[in-house]
Amino acid sequence: MVEPRRLITPEIAAEYDVSPHTVTKSWSQHTAWPTAVGKRGRYKEYDAQDVAAFVRDHVHRQAPSLEPGRLYTARQLEDAGIGITAGTIRADLARDRWPAPDDTTGGVNRWTGATATQALAGRRGYRRAQG
Length: 131
Description:
Order of helices and strands: EHHEEHEHHEH
Strand content: 5-15%
Strand order of the largest sheet: 1-3-2
Number of strands: 5
């Protein structure tokens, strides 16, 4: 029988091209992070398949399925499952990291699905910079 592949923090970081800090301070704090299956030196070991499932389900953003011409509020974008919250959209808008609204009728900011999709595609990923 083949033993399941086990990974420790530095190996996880190398495999997914992120810093060890991202693994220990961000990913492993998530409620869906897999349970350790052992220990190697000072590091906990995790089943490689469990880690891969976590990354697939919680790290890699899925392309949103937004109607290009429809107008969405920040809350509606969050509810559509775009991977960021309405609060993040509002904060990024204030910091010029989110596009200006396409419509502000009634004092409510709204973006077309096309604008939101383009903004999401341009967001930085959670990858370590290539030097």
